[in-house]
Amino acid sequence: MKLLTCPINGPRNITEFQYLGPVRGASAERAGELVEALFYHENPLGPLKEWWRHTPSNTVFIAERHTVSDEILATWLPNRRPD
Amino acid sequence: MPLTLLRYGLRPRHVSFRDIPPTPELKRGYDVVIIGGGGHGLAAAYYLGKAHGIRNVAVLEKGYLAGGNTARNTTTIRSNYLTEESIRFYKEGVGLFATMSDDLGFNIMFSQRGQLTLAHSEGALRSFHLRAEMGKHMGTRTEVVDAKTVRDLCPHVNLDLGGLHEVTGGLWHADGGTARHDAVAWGYAKRAAELGVEIHQRTEVTGFRKAGDRVTHVVTGRGEIAAGQVLQAVGGLNGQVAEMAGFRLPIRCFPLQAMVTQPLKPFLDILLSSADLHTYLVQSSRGEIVIGGGSDPYQLASTRSTLDQKEHLAEGALHLFPFLHQVKLLRQWTGITDMTPDYSPIMGASPLQNYWLDCGWGTWGFKATPVAGKRMAEAVATGRVPDLLRPFDLRRFDRFALVNEMGATAASH
Predict the structure, then answer these.
(1) Share above pLDDT 90 across residues of chain B, in percent, rounded to a whole number
(2) Full set of structural domains in chain B with CATH
(3) Engineered SS bond to B86: which of B81, B222, B283, B335, CB 3.0-4.6 Å?
């Protein structure tokens, strides 16, 4: 079982979570960035900030995860990033 | 081929040979440098030599020959896609597989046994009707069949699944088949090497030297080589190699897991998949049941496996064939898929002048090995992208001209 720590509910089985994709650098609101925002997603070999949802409690939050080691480095609620 | 074999067998003294020559020293430069020694790169190398007389070619492979997604796919060959552009392309691929053993003089064990995709809902059947009509229009053998025909084609399959996912019909694709994945790569490698192509294993590309919008040199762990043209076909690392070359690709990496059971007596003589269960099964010529399914739920560039995903595959397989419940698993593995937003590949030109792309093959690349190799070789040799490949141009994303194959791709191969 792989654990993911929900900022509200603590460590839970990762099967309780829904993956919502990388936190986007580009904005679909700005005309020049539309194609980038729609099709060119972040795909690093290394730490990636991404949106997750804890399904039973409907908690949407951000996780930072390493895309090679699969290690979850930190999780936080939007706009409440720990220092 | 059989006569050659007979003559060889009757010859008194057998000369030992090896199919693929050892890695030579790197030369100063090559007319064409192919990055990636998987099926696609090797097929392109073969066609460059065979069809276009371009033999000063180097294939650079970071690891060992065909050890990436060529070794990790589940060898489904089919053309029952949804769009005209895709069906036209994959149909040519199926045709090339049919004659490949003879063309290469190398047995790739092509078996055109047909693929059946099960529907467990009216929604799935509706999408099958669409694919069947497109398939017929394009001259492939694709049709919607009812539950009785499903039983005739595959008498062992559990049709009611405990009432949860009753089979309502299926998409029967008589052109579908399978082949030995390693043999496809080795056959192309052997014949390409005979034509003069150099295959450099354990040769990692670490960077590029450019002049304006042209690549002049490819930097490798074994030294720097000049390159006339470059073709990139590196599977799960396509995004990273493109970034080294100075541009981005609309690609995200997801792991795709599969597994095989111990060998059983033959009982499954078609390729069977279920769109709703996200599982597909095929019995290999050794008797093993190859089980594949959907990708991992989140982005990752590691070939680790997970129990969750393996249990999911086993669950789907047991829904379809409950009598497999005591069968042991022999092997399991993972590949890194380079997924595009529209589930179609990226083939053709890149933002650089002499740099060509054969990437974004995601979970569906094996079936395209011969046709992608043949047509990419044509693009590199002539400098003109063949009409067959034009819909798959990288710039389609800028034009919103996507080739959406999500429905005909996910978990159906």
Answers:
(1) 89
(2) 28-75+181-250+342-409 (3.50.50.60), 113-175+253-339 (3.30.9.10)
(3) B81
In a domain, A43, yes or no: yes
The shortest C-alpha distance from B50 to chain A (Å) reads 37
Q: If you measure CA to CA, which chain A residue comes closest to B300?
A: A67
Q: Answer yes or no: is pLDDT of B218 > 60.
A: yes
CA distance B144 to B139: 15
A39–B341: do the CB atoms touch at under 8 Å?
Answer: yes
Complex prediction ipTM: 0.93
Residues from chain A that touch B401, judged by Cβ atoms under 8 A, are none
Specify the DSSP class assigned to residue A37: H
- Tell me how many domains chain A contains: 1
What is residue A16's three-state secondary structure? helix
The confidence score (pLDDT) of residue B118 equals 94
**Is A39 an 8 Å CB contact of chain B?**
yes
Which residues of chain B neighbour A72 with C-beta distances below 8 Å?
none
What digits encode the pLDDT tens for the residues A20-72?
999 999 998 998 899 999 999 999 999 999 999 999 999 999 999 999 999 99
- Is A9 part of the contact surface with chain B (CB cutoff 8 Å)? no
User: Domain range holding A17?
Assistant: 3-76
A19 contacts B298? CB cut-off 8 A: yes
CATH code at position A54: 3.30.2270.10
* Cβ–Cβ below 8 Å for B398 and A35: yes
Residue that wins the pLDDT comparison between B19 and B95: B95
Whether A43 sits inside 8 A of B341 (CB atoms) is no
A43 to B297: CB separation less than 8 angstroms, yes or no? no
Position B10 scores a pLDDT of 87
Q: Whole-number mean pLDDT of chain B?
A: 95
